Structure formats: structure tokens, C-alpha cells
Amino acid sequence: RQIDNDINAIWSEGEHYQLANFLSFFEISILAPIIEEIFFRGFLLTSLTTRFSIKNSVLLSSIIFGIVHADIIGATIFGIVLSIIYIRSKSLFAPIIIHISNNLLVFIIYYFYKYFENINTYTLIEFQNDWWQGLIGLTIGLPWFIYFYKKEILNHTFVLPYFINSRV
């Protein structure tokens, strides 16, 4: 069975493929992160704190952020980190810049992977044989997440930038 690896984010043919690539780059790397941060951190996280504690609101908004992305676990952890950065910096600017940087890096990697590896399809067997890449990411990322969790979340009082909220 074959997995369609071409997400139509980068084109190499057609009358206006350069324009399509620019628009795809702009949408994925700049527009989507700005809109997502305004919604998930600025609106959803802030709104949830009217009903739940800030810690529970961070977790819930990050889980929802993870669900709407392909990598649920990674996006949830990324959402938690961006939420903490939003709360600590008291601004959406920092999470927006980090989110843009993340998406930009993914776009660039995908671009080079597609053009220099010249791979248009990805089989299920090849996908299963790449299990070790996730293990490497987990091995590197999990200690950092545990450190960040202990340092920034446990026994820490959070106050949202735009609401006076006494809940922790």
C-alpha cells in the first residue's frame, strides 16, 4: 500500500507553480502560525481560564491544538511550550515568532527533501521502517520536556497577560 507523501505544499510544474509555491510558503510559514497563535493562545487559552485553572486551561487548549495537527503528541507538547512562553512573556509576539520559525524549518526541510531526494511516494513499509526517527526525537525531546515541566510548570503561579485571574 502506498501513502501519498505529496501534500500539495510544493509544486514543480504547472503554469504558475512559482506563485503557488510562494503562496504555500506564506500560508504555512507565516499566516497559519499567526492565526493559530491568536486563536489558541490569545483567545482559547484566555477564554478557558474563565472556567478552569490556568494549568488546566494550558493543557486543554494544547490538546485541542494537538488534535487539529497531524502530530498530536508533538503538537500538544509544542502547544504547552508556546502557552508557557505566552504567559511568561505576557505577549503573543514570542509564541508567534517561535511558531513561524518552526513552520519555516519544516517547510524548508520538506522542500529540500522533495527536490533533492526526488521522492514523490512513500510506501507503508518505508514508513514502518522509519520508526527509529521517532525514537530519536523522543529520546532527545523527552528529557528537555521533563526539565521544562519541572522548571516552568510545577510549583509555579501563572497569571495570564490579558485577564486578571487568581486561579493557578
Notes on the protein architecture:
With 168 residues, this protein is mainly alpha-helical. Helices cover 70% and strands 2% of the residues. It has six helices and two strands; from the N terminus they run βααααβαα. Strands 1-2 form a two-stranded antiparallel sheet. α1 (17-48) runs antiparallel to α2 (54-67), α2 crosses α3 and α3 (72-89) runs antiparallel to α4 (93-117). The protein is globular. Mean pLDDT is 77; it is low at 1-6.
What is the helix content? 55-70%
Query: What is the strand content?
Result: under 5%
Number of helix segments? 6
Strand order of the largest sheet: 1-2
Structural class: mainly alpha
Oligomeric state of shown chains: single chain
Number of strands: 2
How would you summarize this macromolecular structure in one to three sentences?
The protein has helices spanning 17-48, 54-67, 72-89, 93-117, 124-129, 131-152, and strands at residues 2-3, 122-123. It has 168 residues and is an all-alpha fold. Helix 1 packs antiparallel against helix 2.
